[in-house]
Backbone:
């Protein structure tokens, strides 16, 4: 069942989304060469507790994965792309890190992810990250009232293919609202004009993720961490988006570096 949200309820989700965006921006500054993944995880735990938020990941036990998940972040490094289990690992120069987080505040959820390189970047990694970010923006732009869910999926897939990447169909975006994972599934490739109608009040997490040279994946022995099957680098971008009469409303935009230093100024990706 898909629950359409009222304008007031979307506003409440936006409060959660603002916190998620701000914390992701903060965590991207915490991550650096020589920093342990568990330090990033514990930093996030403190911030979530201080805000009075609740992690959607803690004790999460889906049909995939080996639950319960006892962390508040997914931290995926290099060839890991989804559900990376935080562990004792010190970031090295050139590591590609993806951070994914979802929380609820006052009963309303928001979910977002970003990827970036720690230290000296490989240009190929930057292109891979760019592809996920451009695909995400294309998917957001396609989230128009009266359109179809396939429009969103097709827009994401078109960008991925234009960069020369293949798309895995096993994991994608999802509905979100009172819980982290709700209907519908939002595939990262599809056909325009197909699927459910995009009606104002629909809230979804759009999340393109890509592997550099494959669309096949494998799962670590930890039962959670998903990696590219061939060991190639990966990237992941995600925002929570509401369909409104005026068009898509992104609820998890992150502040720009200037906004983080001087107060709210503008929205970033």
Residues:
């Amino acid at each position: 069942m898909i629950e359409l949200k009222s304008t007031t309820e979307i506003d409440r989700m936006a409060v959660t989304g603002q916190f998620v965006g701000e914390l992701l921006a903060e965590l991207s500054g915490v991550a650096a060469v020589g920093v342990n993944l568990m330090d990033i995880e514990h930093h996030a735990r403190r911030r979530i507790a201080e805000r009075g938020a609740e992690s959607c990941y803690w004790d999460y036990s889906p049909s995939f994965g080996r639950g319960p998940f006892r962390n508040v972040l997914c931290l995926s490094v290099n060839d890991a792309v989804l559900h990376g289990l935080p562990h004792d690992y010190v970031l090295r120069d050139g590591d590609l890190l993806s951070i994914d987080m979802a929380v609820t505040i006052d009963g309303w959820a928001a979910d977002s992810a970003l990827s970036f390189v720690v230290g000296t970047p490989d240009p190929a990694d930057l292109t891979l990250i760019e592809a996920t970010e451009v695909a995400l923006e294309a998917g957001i732009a396609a989230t128009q009232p009266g359109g179809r869910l396939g429009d969103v999926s097709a827009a994401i897939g078109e960008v991925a293919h234009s960069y020369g990447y293949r798309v895995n169909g096993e994991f994608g975006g999802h509905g979100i609202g009172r819980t982290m994972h709700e209907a519908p599934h939002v595939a990262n490739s599809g056909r325009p004009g197909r699927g459910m109608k995009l009606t104002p009040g629909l809230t979804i997490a759009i999340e393109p993720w890509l592997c550099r040279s494959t669309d096949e994946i494998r799962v670590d022995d930890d039962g959670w961490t998903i990696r590219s099957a061939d060991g190639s680098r990966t990237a992941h971008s995600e925002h929570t988006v509401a369909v409104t009469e005026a068009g898509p409303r992104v609820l998890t935009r992150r502040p720009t570096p200037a906004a983080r230093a001087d107060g709210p100024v503008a929205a970033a990706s």
Observations:
- The radius of gyration is 17 Å.
- The mean pLDDT is 94.
- The chain has one domain: 7-253.
- The first strand starts at residue 54 and ends at 55.
